[in-house]
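Discrete fold record:
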Amino acid sequence: MNFVPRLFLCALLLLATGVRADGTRRFRQWAAGQETGEIEVATDRKGGAEHIRNRERTRLERLGMVVSQDLDLDAARSADGSLRFSWKLLLSSEPLEGEATFSPKEPGVLRLKPKGGAPRVVQVPADAVLWPGEANRRLQEAARKRQPVTIRSYSFPTQQWQELSLKPVEASPLPGFSDAVK
């Protein structure tokens, strides 16, 4: 093997390693055989603080009409366990945005500040999951152990609690996704 193909192969491997190292995962969305959007999840850790940035883009075209949705959700967890969230949801041309905070000093309280709306306090159930990374960890653990899982989390764009209950149907993992099950 001569020098140029080796150099190209090394550069390609370094690039692939760099994509995984920065903590960014990208997914494409499909509906009815057409690509309709993408999801990008980026994680970062600096000085004891964690940051998760979630970007979702969806665009559907049917019968000459276009419906689009863009969601940006940023979550930050500091070393003391306090959480800070900001979100922006754009439905076609209607923006919904705001911020929220959670402190371990007040474990049952989530403080919301929607843009253009009155600040409010939401009670946090004891079994609720606010940190997006924890919800993902629980899903992966349940898939690995082939166990059912129920996760209650808060949807900041819709400002309501949601519950996800999943149970495995088969013991075999999905092709290409060793941490997922049917």
In short: Confidence is low (pLDDT under 50) at residues 1-21.
